[in-house]
Amino acid sequence: MPATRAPLILASASPRRLDLLAQAGIAPDHVRPADIDETPLKDETPAALAERLAREKALHVHDAGSFTLAGDTIVAMGRRILPKAGDAAEVIDCLKLLSGRAHQVISGLAVCAPDGRVSVRAVRSRVLFKRLTDDEIEHYGHAGDGVGKAGGYAIQGQAAPFVRRINGSYTAIVGLPLYEAVSMLQGLGYLSGAASPSGAE
After folding, report:
1. Fewer CB in a 10 Å sphere around the end CB: N or C, the chain?
2. For residues 170 and 146, what is the distance between their CA atoms, to the nearest angstrom?
3. Per-residue DSSP letter, 177
């Protein structure tokens, strides 16, 4: 008999996560962004926040009988959590903090299995920025590339020349630690390629 599998739900509308999954030959059957409160709890560490948000997003959209994959990206300097920049001013504030310094990118991952099992993990990467000029900060801030991004920048975009060094997972910094995501899905029994995707919703 041909192999069959339960459908896969991606709890995110991020085109970056879809593109990364496509690189692994995985096409979610459904795309269901999870709208949850992402406010950190009192004294919550960046890693704990990333894991909690990933879990809550996965559980928020999960259907019994399906696999669900969710992720959340946190940018932190020590215990300080940088915002997902809402406008150019926040992007500029983030870049001023990141200029010439190292920071952590923490990717929370959660996978829910059809039988109710949940796997959660945090993947940590270290990013070192070069010292930015005022012109570079202003130009990037007003270019719009960092709006809506954790820490106010996207490593795969116009901020790529700012990065001197990374230690960790490049795909995690982009938006989804691909090795870990595939490993977690396989560990819970997901069989990619066994059925044709039914399309996003």
Report:
1. N
2. 17
3. -
